[in-house]
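Much of our argument rests on the idea that a fold can be written as discrete symbols. Part of our work consisted of pairing the sequence of a single chain with a tokenised description of its backbone. No coordinates are needed to read the tokens, only the vocabulary itself. The record that follows shows the chain in one-letter code together with its fold in token form.
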Amino acid sequence: MVTTSAVLGIAAVALGLVLTPGPNMLYLVSRSITQGRRAGLVSLLGVAAGFGVYLAAAATGLAAVFTAVPTAYTVLKLAGAAYLLFLAWQAVRPGGTSVFAVGQLPVDPARRLFAMGLVTNLLNPKIAVLYVSLLPQFIDPAQGSVAVQSLLLGATQIAVALTVNALIVVFAGTLAGFLASRPTWVRVQRYLMGAVLAALALRLATDRSRPLPV
């Protein structure tokens, strides 16, 4: 069984990641602003399905592949760290914009919105890094089945991510209007997100842990 500290730890990591701009946030915000809250929530269902795929993979032995091929694990971690640094630079670079400053998108039916949310999440390097590199750091084989711990910690991450993303979808239009008239707040948001992303990249690049077999 997972410990309370592990649950709180993965919840904190999940909160930090979901609040930093990435493919999921960009897609959900753009859909919510250009097509309405319903479209944003349908897209979020697709994102949730993507989380389910990652959770199932983590619980059924995804880490075993990286245990057998340590080099692949190292490459993934370094690639993930580089991606997070890229997102940090995108947030703070001169001329950068807020995630809530989006352009117009074509109106899509619910089925396509769901599918795009699913694909966006499955191809999101930030989520792949979370399940392969960050989540295992909170698993203790002495506490019992690694698979069960993966499921419980993954469920915690999903609960945090979906709650925050749902709030973002519901209030995306309000936040966009608020930030549009307050450039100082936009700069603060960008630099704060950049700092969080850079810190996560540094932690990931310097982590020496190995994936745990189920």
